[in-house]
Specification:
The complex is a heterodimer of chains A (217) and B (211). With 217 residues, chain A is α/β, with parallel strands linked by helices. In chain A, 36% of the residues lie in helices and 14% in strands. Chain A contains 7 helices and 6 strands. Chain A has a 5-stranded mixed β-sheet with strand order 1-6-5-3-4. In chain A, a hairpin with a 5-residue loop joins strand 3 and strand 4. Chain B is of the alpha/beta class. Chain B has a domain of 128 residues. Chain B has a 5-stranded mixed β-sheet, sandwiched between helices. The chains are: A alpha/beta (217), B alpha/beta (211). At the A-B interface, helix 1, strand 1, strand 2, strand 5 and helix 6 of A face helix 1, strand 1 and helix 5 of B.
Chain lengths: 217, 211
Amino acid sequence: MAKAKIQKKSTETDMTPFVDVAFLILSFFIMATKFKPSEPVPIETPNSVASQIMPDNNAVMMSIDKDNKVYFSIMSKSDLQKGKDIVKEAAKRAGVTLSDGDLSHYTDGMMMGMPFNKLKSFLALPPADQAKVKQDGIPVMDSATNELVNWIGAAKYVFAGETLKYLVKGDNSSKYPAFNALIDAMKRNDEQKYNLVTMPTDAPPGSELYLDRLKGK
Amino acid sequence: MASLDTGGDDGHKKGPGVKKAKRQSTRVDMTPMVDLGFLLITFFIFTATMSNPTTMDLNMPKDSDKKDQETKIKQSGSLTVLLAKDNKVFYYEGEMDPTGANFKSDTYKGIRNEIINKKKEVVSHYVQDPACEQEARSKGKSIDDCKQKDFFVIIKPTDDATYKNVVDMLDEMTINKVARYALVKPFPGELDAIRLTIGGAPAAAPATPAK
């Protein structure tokens, strides 16, 4: 009787497709990654079900860090000069004169959290040193010396006639009074609409919004 | 593998002492490359911020001194939520009872049910308002807003509340589709009530000096 021949198969698998897929994923992640510009102050934002994407152009952002310090940043990547103009205008309103030369180290979206009397020396530092400096935060708590009013006013002035979004980015553990002072500064500039920056999260299952979104899909 | 050249097994023989040229395999060992590839993948997966930050709209009313411009709300349909320190929430319906009988404490998880219940209650008392429904229909909106037009949530964050508390509460409004709500400063009476409750509760945290 002829014995059935058992073919000896090699235990080695062909890794090529596996490697192909792996590198495909790798290239996807490399391309999809947008590196966050290093922030001098880490801010952990709360989660919300809001689904609006954060604008990153023609916007000013007021940030509150965990020590209740307030920072102001301008996002105008399409026109950097506007950002510089806002800084100059805000300083001018507080009686500090800044020239374009003082703003040579200005970068788009940088977080400025200095009172106006220290702003000039802070801006004179090279960018690498700016990140190391522990900023004092814009004075806001006292409504008489709320410097944020100047900042917002200047932004409003420079962006007159154009759309400007006001973003508020607060740290989870920052206290309400700082946020309240910020709202106050906005109100004094007659600005009532703003956006709170949050991280997205899903609507809790069973809630009305959840059912609504389910229907929408 | 390393083996001695015994010779004699292949057809062509070279002279004694002449070594056979080793044929090198064209295959490259891919293992280190794959290792590196996966290392990079893990790195990018960890650093990738897939979720871009989103924003939540917040519209504040204009400050006005005129009495007639104040928003009037019905006592029966109002729910006041106070945000206190250590993620504590206090709430009461309508007007606060002087004895504090309707002043209750809750958590951020539990407050959702309170809001839903209150909303249901208000909607159940809804008397049809054809004018409002007509307007909603003509604008292509749902008449839900008419049904809950008497429902109003007043959010009062105290100075001890964190920013997260406020955002969570505002988010709760979106989740439960509360059409009308406002951020308001708490009254001194309410702050006293919170102080009393936190201090008087049996399971209160060890007394820490107030900041």
